[in-house]
Task: structure prediction
Amino acid sequence: MIISTFKMIEILCCSSFLTMIVVSTMMLMSSGPFMYDFAYYDLALQRCNRNSFTIHGLWPELTTHTWPEFCHKTEFKLEAIQPLVPTMNEIWTSCEQNRPNEGLWEHEWLRHGTCTGLSQFDFFNRTISLYTEAKNSGIIDQRCHYSITSGNGCLISYHLNFTLRGRTVPF
Result:
């Protein structure tokens, strides 16, 4: 049924970009409320006005240019991650002057975390663990470099079982 739906959508749509979005959305809807068919995770890092990269978020990815977002309505609760907050205030900071760290965390949970199938605590804790492992093992220093052309961000990709993939991309 899903395959025939995809074929019908491809025939009706005239833009391959639009087709890709519709197909991705259909895959998400077919997966149920808490399980999503994504291919890998990107640990998104940012460099604000510091000498080192900090966490921006953990993003589930369908393909290189498509991702699920705002997957279900589970509100952000700071008290759910209270044990992590001291660490997060050090390594997961907002680059925007008028946005407190909690605003970034809420945005990342609502936009990306709700699509992972992880609890709010597990989402943030897993992200912290991936970042800490990447930093302590030298992966961030090896793969993420600032340049005028690449900007202040870096994506480090992980398989669904949270093992490192070969892909690292500046953004």
Notes: The helical segments are 2-12, 16-30, 85-91, 101-111, 120-136, 139-143. Strands lie at 40-46, 54-61, 153-158, 164-170. Residues 120-136 form the longest helix (17 residues).
